[in-house]
Fold this sequence. Notes:
Elements: H1 9-17, H2 30-34, H3 42-47, E1 53-55, E2 62-64, E3 69-70, E4 76-77, E5 82-84, E6 91-93, E7 98-100, E8 107-109, E9 113-115, E10 122-124, E11 128-130, E12 137-139, E13 143-145, E14 152-154, E15 158-160, E16 167-169
Antiparallel strand pairs: 1-2, 3-4, 5-6, 7-8, 9-10, 11-12, 13-14, 15-16
Amino acid sequence: YNLKSPLNGEAAQWADKNRLKFPTDKTDFSSYFENSNNTISDSEMKSITDDSIVKCANCGNSVKGSDLVFCSSHHPVCINCAFTCSECGKVICLKCVTGKCSICNQIVCANCISKCSLCKADVCLSHTKTCYICGNKVCDDCYITCSKCGKTVCLDHMKKIPGTNNYACVNCQI
Length: 174
């Protein structure tokens, strides 16, 4: 939750006071990064047959050529270490720079992740908006649509319209 958002303020305050009640994932992936960091050239990829045995660049397990997957960075990986970017469809692995959207929890590649300029959350492109006033990228929790002009603005550039439950951008309030 974004504590600056007027749209979910009560929920955000509760979440901030009860942080220890949320589950956290204790999985340690550091061992994956200590294994081989090999990438394979196009010619090497073509020379691998179905019967070839190759070590997964992520977990180090031996993988038969027929079960091998190559991520977009040419890391040879087993099927358990291959992921698909939910935005662009690229095959990525743990060796690749990836991110996880804080809103939909989907794994995305480095090209499809954005950091909200206000709350600093990592979000996929589907949950990123651009403030028409400052041009900053913000997440779904840090923007509002101006009730007067209909444009997307970040929380820094909106104000509540006095006497209503509506919000307008600073340009429409002048």
